[in-house]
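Hello,

Following up on my earlier ticket. Below are the two sequence lines again, exactly as submitted.
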Amino acid sequence: MRFSNTLKLSIASLSTHPFRSFLAGLGVVFGVGAVVGMLAIGEGARIESIRQIQEMGVDKIIIRSITKESNDEDEQTAVVGITKDDIRHIGNQFDNVNAVLPITNWSGTAISQWMEKPNQQVLGVPQQFVEITNSRILGQNGRFFTPKDYDEATPVCVVGSRLAKELFQFRNPIGDRLFVDGNYFTIVGILDHPADRKIEGIGSVNNMVYIPAVTGFETWGIPTRGNRSQVPYRMLYVVVNSIEQIENTSKRLAAYFRTTHDEYDYEIVLPFELMRQQEATQRVFTIVMASIASISLLVGGIGIMNIMLANIFERMKEIGTRRALGATRRDILTQFLVESVVLTTLGGALGATLGVLLAFVVAEYAEMPTSVTFVSVILSLSVSILTGVIFGSFPAWKAANLSPMEALRHE
Amino acid sequence: MSASSTLPPMIDLIGIQKRYKMGTQTVHALHPLQLKFHIGQFVAIVGPSGSGKSTLLNLLGLLDKSSGGEYWLDGQNVAQLRDEKISQVRCRKIGFIFQSFNLFPNMSVLENVCVPMHYAEQSKQYMTERAHLILDRLGLGDRTGHKPTELSGGQRQRVAIARSLANDPPVILADEPTGNLDEQTGEEVMQIFRELRSEGRSIIMVTHNQEYEREVDRVIEIRDGHIIRS
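Thanks for your patience. The regenerated structure is below:
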C-alpha cells in the first residue's frame, strides 16, 4: 500500500475514536510540554546568570579585600587587604595587564538641600569606572570626572540615579552641592546602570556617591574605623589584555598575593571562570530537569503502547480481513506504526505549544526569565516521534504477526 | 463440465493435509487429500460442524499453512511460499467473501471496494473507475457514498462480493455467504455467483444449506477430516 494511503488510513482510524485518541496522546502532550517548559526555564536561568557575570566583565580579574571583625582593640595593623604597594606592583610588573583600577570606600551622612541620609556609601573611583561597569552618565550637562579632577583633587561628585531622586526629590541636582561628613562636593553628573547592577560586597551602582579617589584621600585620608586602619582599597579591577591571558594572569596574581600577604585578606574573583562554572552547573541542572520531565514522556509512551495493544485486540477482525484482502505483514506493521507515530507527533506538537505557553506564563507571573529555544522544540518533537516508533513497534509487530486465520476467527 | 476438464485445473491439491499437536496426540483436522477445482466451476463444500470444511477453505485461501502436500494455484505451487508472496497471491488470485461480510464500518462502500486495490498498488483513477464499474454491475451504483451500516444485509453482502472482485481474481472463496441472509436475498447472492461462474471464475463455497447442493456444479462433503463425496 502507498504511504500516503497508509497515512490517510491511520488518521481515519484515529478519528474513529477521537476522545480515546486524545486521552492516549495526553501523556505525550504533558511529557513534551514539561520537557519544553523545563528547558525554557533552565535556559532562561542560564542566560540570566551569564548576563550577570558578563556584566562584571569577562576580561577582568576582580580582587577584593576581605575585612575581618577583630575584637582585639590593640590589633592595629592586622587586616589591611589590598595595599598601595600591591597596586603599584601589579601595574609595573604584570605586562599583560592593561589597567589596575582601585576602588576605595568611605561612608558618612550625606546631606542635600532637601534630605539627609546617614551611612551613605561614598566610592573613590578611577576615571574608567563608567566603562568598567557599563554604566552611563545622565542629566543635562552631566559628566564624569576629568583628568583635571584627579590632578587637582577637586571636590566634585557624581551621584547614582536612584540616590539622586531620593536626595533631590526628582529635581536636577547638577551644579548643586552635597555635604558628606561636613565636606561639600559639587555634583557634576548622575550615574545610571539600566539594570541597577550590584557591585559585589558594596551595593547597588545607582545608589552610591562617587568621588575621584584622590579627592577622598585628600579629604579623609586612608579610611579608618575606630583607631585602626581600615582596608584602604575595597577592590581592584585588573583589566587584562585578552581573555586568553586571564587564567595565567590570575595564577600569577595569586602567587604574588600569597607571598606578600601574611593573611588571607584578599579574594581573587574571575568572572570568566565564574561564567564557565556557572554554564557547567546550569547545564547539569537543565539536564537533570529535562530528564525528570522526560520520565513523563516515558510514561506517555507506555500509555500509547497500552492503548495500541488494546486497539489491536479490538481490531483483530479488521486485521484478519485486511490480510485476506492482500495486506502483507509489512502493510499491517506500517499501518499501526504510522498510527502511533501520528498520535505521538500530534501529542508532541500540542505538548510543545503547551511548553511554550508554560514558559510564557512562568516568565510573566513568576518573573523568572525563560527562553524557548528552537532546538528544544525540534528536539522534543523528534523525541515524541521516536516515542511513537519505540512504543508503537511492539504492538505493530504483534498485529503484523497475527495468523490471518486466527485474526479472522476473532469476534 | 466436460469442456473445462480438458483444461489444466485452476486448483490442484496433492496430498494437502492439516495436523495439530494436542499434548502428545496428533489430531488430523484434514487427512491428506487429492482435489482438483476447474476453471468456471461452482463448488459447494458441505459437512457438519467441526468436519474440517473451514480448515479446507482456510488452506485454499492461504490463510493457514498446510502441514504437508502441494497446492497448485493457477499453475504455481503456493504451499511453501514466503508470507509476502502469499499475500500477493491472496491479493490478486483469490477473492474472499465472509458470512458476516467483514466490511470496514468507517469507510464508504466505494472505499471498501478499493481496499484490495490499495494493496495491489493501483492508481487512484483506476481504483475509482473499477470500483464504480463493479458496483454498477451489482446494482449498487447509487450507494457508493454510503457507509455499510446504512445498507441492508443483502446490499452489504453485494458490497463484499464487489470487494472480492476488485482485483479480478480467478478464484472466489465464500464462507457461508448466505448464512446471515434471508432466503430471498440468499437466492440473489447465489444468482450473482452463477453469473461469476459463467465468466470463468472458480467459486468455492462452504455452506450448511442443503438446498444449494442442487444449484452448484459439484458438492464436496467432508466428515471427520475425510472427503466422503466429491
